[in-house]
Amino acid sequence: MQIRVASLPENGIVIELNEPVNRFAVLKEMQEQGECEFLGNIAGVVAVKKVMDMVAVSGNLHIGVRLMCSRCLEEFDTILADHFSVSFTKNLPEIKEEQSEFALQAEDLGLVFYEGDIIDLHDAVQEQVVMLFPVSPVCASTCKGLCHTCGENLNKGGCTCEKNNGIDPRFAVLKALKLPPRKD
What is the pTM of this model? Predict the structure, then answer.
């Protein structure tokens, strides 16, 4: 997924992606560590166009993935998909020390520095896929999760444990606590 900037036509190019996950070190490691299971290749369409002294890359990516629900701990299949855009530049803007501590850096502007005449989209695509992962994946918005007492999956029916009349089991011992009457 390398692009030679000097040979980019004026109206840009369109690249169709269909890349195996094992070509991306971070994604391969995520799968090997059991964080997810990828269900096919990373697919999408990417447009690349030279704009002044920058190269604008935008497109859509999608990939099927098997995740574990953060509520019920059951595995479920979903598709991670989104639109992205990244701009590559050879000349990063210089930030002077006397400028405010709140001055934007090149990374804050979404600019990626490249050297030479070749841009490798490999890292940009990998980064976009990683950012698509939900922080707390949920199999369904109606997922009831696990019983906090017995750990039964509440999506498969009710559990048989005693509910302690709504008392959190961690505080059940306080129910038997006898305090002396207050003297006011």
Answer: 0.73
